[in-house]
Write a structure and sequence with these properties.
Blueprint (H helix, E strand, L loop, with lengths): L1 H16 L6 H13 L2 H7 L33 H19 L3 H15 L4
Helix pairs in contact: 2-4, 2-5, 4-5
């Protein structure tokens, strides 16, 4: 009798916890959005993100963007690339909501490439 009471309770708890868990793709989306709303992105695009640039408030964060250029020139950030990355994030969000994790992750890989190495 005890097992029959515990099992349904455990299933209810498991079911309640399932939807609350964030997918790895939604975590990637949040991370890239913070990058695209950073002071470095503002430096590249010349536009302040809506709500102002974000800050990580991390003790490890740099006070100023590095002066050097990326070692791989193909990773240089551009205003157009940042705009394309924002559009790709909208697509990835829809894919994540639809449960298309593979599509979302592929789209996020492309968004990261488009964003480039932001200062």
């Amino acid at each position: 009798m005890r097992i029959t009471l515990v099992l349904p309770a455990a299933l209810v708890l498991l079911g309640a916890a399932g939807p609350a868990l964030a997918s790895s793709c939604s975590e990637q989306i949040a991370t890239i959005e913070r990058r695209l709303d950073s002071a470095g992105a503002e430096q590249v695009t010349g536009k302040e993100p809506p709500g102002g640039p974000t800050s990580s408030h991390s003790e490890k964060a740099l006070d100023h963007a590095p002066k050097g250029k990326p070692t791989d020139p193909s990773t240089t950030a551009s205003a157009g690339g940042v705009a394309e990355a924002r559009d790709l994030i909208k697509k990835a969000r829809a894919q994540d909501k639809a449960g298309d994790m593979k599509g979302c992750e592929d789209t996020m890989t492309e968004a990261k490439k488009k964003a480039g190495a932001l200062p």
